[in-house]
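Researcher: I'd like a structural prediction for the single chain below. Treat it as a standalone chain; there are no partners to consider.
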Amino acid sequence: MKQQHFVYLAVGVAATILFYVLRVSAYECIYSVPGFSDQFYNAGLYDMIPLITIAIPWAAAGIYYYAINSVRFDRWYHWLVVGLISTLLTPIVGYMVNSSVFNDMGVSYVAESLSFELANLIWAALMFIVASFSMRWWSTNCRHTPIPQ
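Model: Treating it as a single chain, here is the predicted structure.
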């Protein structure tokens, strides 16, 4: 049984790496505006924003399964709350980074940046789900959340 858990972890890590490798295509299939996307690419934000989209959900899942790891906090709705916080925090941090870089460049894409980060909600939620199903198996109290084994 433990060997199967490592397979889940390996698949989750592979899916995350694949997301990062295909980051430009992944984001542009959801949101692409000619001037904005060019500036976004030139500023290196297609490197930075996906890292944020990976780091926050994986960290949130890790905190839920290993730091919180409480019998009193092991229901599906607790997991959902952590997932929602992660999913909302990711675009907020992404927008702040995005805004800062564009301000330093002297360009303004406020509406486009907001729309992009709204689209980023999808990737943040998917990353949290991938992270959860990858690492939940070693949690002592929350491993049955959100779906029992």
